[in-house]
Every structure is written in structure tokens, then in C-alpha cells.
Amino acid sequence: MNGTKDGDLVFVSGNPGGTFRELTNAQLAFERDTLFPSRIPEIAERRGQQEVFATRGPEQAREANDELFFLENGFKVYFGRQQALLDPQFFGTKMQEEQRLRAATAANPKLAAYVSAWDDIAKVQQVRSQLFVRNASLGGRSFRAGLLGDAVTLVRAAAERTKPNRERLPEYTDKALVNVQQQLTAAVPVYKDLEELDLAFLFTVVRRDLGADDTFVRKMLGKESPEQLAHRLVTGTHLEDPKVREELYKGGQSAVDASNDPMIRFAASINDDLLAVRKDYEARVDAPTRSAAEKIAKARFAVYGTSVDPDATFTLRLTYGTVKGFENAEGKFVEPYTSIGGLFERATGALPYALPESWLKAKASLNLSMPMNLSTTNDTTGGNSGSPMIDKDANVVGLLFDGNIFSLGGDYGYDAVKNRSIAVDSRALLDGMRKVYHIDRIVDEIEAARK
Per the confidence metrics, is the pTM higher than 0.70? Predict the structure, then answer.
């Protein structure tokens, strides 16, 4: 708990989530040129709506808080990934890596079956482009959030449970249904005014992207506007009550068929359309992509063996690095440490720079020059948050919680010059626990163990 200094060796143990470093250049180009230009503005628009909603009053601000957090985080992630793929040097490195692997694969007669895999994936991207707008509008999680998401889940669960286990959608097998039932019956808060705002936005985006004359759009809206449909569904439904959801789930197909709840009836009316889009995309994009990616993975292992790390999958890993600063986008060097005093220098009293009252009251007792956060060259990603940072003597010196903006490109490849992990310094943790939160017993226990 004595902390670190610039240049010290540090380790981070944890469970990094998903990375995409094995995507081909064709897949990366698709994300750069098609996915992000569509997704980022949509997230920004939805974030703007939530921010306006939050200004209606304290209650609305509280209701929107969680969703705004996830929207802000999603925007940051997609923007960081996009910037990495727009960087000619970064993308050029990815191209060179692929060319080397393809050349090594082609040079080995034993790997002849894998040579065409990159071209196969490139062809799939053409199909992916053709299906992108419709799949983005109707596939994925577009209709799977909030009360409408509950309704869709209830409709599908009822239908899938009538089938043999092996013939069901993966998320409705007997094993998966345990989690489905828990989520449906959980007593989570539901804010109908926020639900109505989200649904109106969803319906507006679908109409905008597919066009007012699209068959599905006509079926979805009928003679109503997105706002009118959202209002009718949200004000008329009783799915906010976990007991209602539980009764519908336990009642199965007969209960769903007999339900007059407008959200259930709406979900039932569009479910076949949503599933058709999903199945078409899975057959024409997902399946051939998996097949080709498997061949590339086998080729990569045959060429490089264990010298190249596989993508992160939430499995336990240990990464090493050093305490080190970096240059920001303006070319200014950022020191590896921030200080507790920096918290108060930035504090404005208004979000997002409003310090809690507990910190303001403790200012006089704090060591303002003490390190607050530190940056290191450890290769981490989403899922590593909360991981301990330890030094070469196995002392805990920090708690990892973030990365710099360049680290978001780490989803596609690690750049030791730019990518940095960010951790709370152990010294600030102890000082805050004692002087701000007054949990002296725990600090005493930690310090006693050190001695």
C-alpha cells in the first residue's frame, strides 16, 4: 500500500471481457465505414433526448441517471474504436499483420484449406452491408429492452417452451430459461414516462431507417405516430408489475394468447417479423462468418502457436506493464499521476464536476499532493474494472477502473505507445477510507496486516 513511482513494474489480474483483435481487415473496414457512422449519431441523439428528459425535474434526473450512464459509456466506446480504425498508422499495422499471416498460410501446403477464409469473410461483408439497415432496425436488441422487451420475451418463451429443447432458440433452452424467469420476475423499478420516451424514439428510428412505406413499418405503426403508439402501449400495459409478468410466464402459451395487454398483443403481432430478420441474418452472415473465422483461427495457431494471445473472453488473465504517462491527442504529455488536489481544482459544483459533500468537508484533512490515479501500460479492457494492481513484491498498489481514450482502440489491437490503463492509487484509497468515509476499522486492519 506504499504506492508506486514512475517506471515501476506492475501487474493486473482480472477477467478482461471481449476484444476483437482477430477480426479481418474487411470486418474492421465494415465497422469503420458502416457500423460506426450509423451507431454513433444514433447514440448521441438518444443521449440528447435523455439529457432533456433529465432537466424536467429531480425525479426525471434520477430516473434517467442509469440509462444516461450507459449511453455515455457506449458513445465513448464506439467513438474510441472508430478513432482507432480511422488512424492510418493503426489500420496500416492491422493490414500488415493480416498480410503476414495470409502469406505464411499460403506458403504452407498443410494449410491450403484455410487460404480462402479471408476472401470468404470479405464476401460476407457485402451481404452484411445489404442486410445492415434492416438488421440494425429489427434485429439485435432493438426490440428487447424495457417493457416491450419483457413482452417479446414472454411471447417467445411461451412459444419456445412448446418445442423440444434441442429445437429452441439458444436463449430459451431449459438451462437458459432459469435466467429468463429470474429476469422476468425480478422486482425492478419501471419508470413509465421514460419507457414512453424510449419507445417513441425506437419507433421513430425504425420508420426513419426503413421508410414510411416499408411493410413492417406500416404494420408496426398502423395509423398512429411513433409517439401515439408508444403512449398507448405504455399507459395501457400492466407489465410493470412483476406478478403480472410471472403469471404470464407460468401460464405459457394459453396465458399469452388470452392476454389483452396491449404490449403483449403488439409483441405477438411483430414477433414473426423480428424472428425472420434474425434468422436470415444468422444464416447469411453469422454462420458463414463463424466458419471462415474458425479457419483463420486454426491458421493463426498453426503459424504462431501460443506466441500470440487469443481474444479476451472474460477468462482470468495476468497482464504486466509499467507506470508511465502518455501524449494526448494534442501532443501534450500527460503525467502518470494525478493528485487528490486535482479533484478540488476541477470541482465546479455542477455535474459532471460536482464533488460529493463528504469530500468537500474532508478537504482540510487530506494530503492534496498525494497521488489519486495512475496510468500504466498494462493491456486491459472492459471487464478488468475492479481488478487489483500489484507491484513486483505482490503489494497492492492500485485498483483498476478505466483506460485512456486511446485504450478503446485496444479492442482491435494493443498500442504500447498510446494505450494506458487507469487505476486509483492505493495511497488515495487508504486516505479516502480514513478521512472521507471514516471506516477506520478497515484501514487499521489493512495497516496491521502490512506490519
Answer: yes
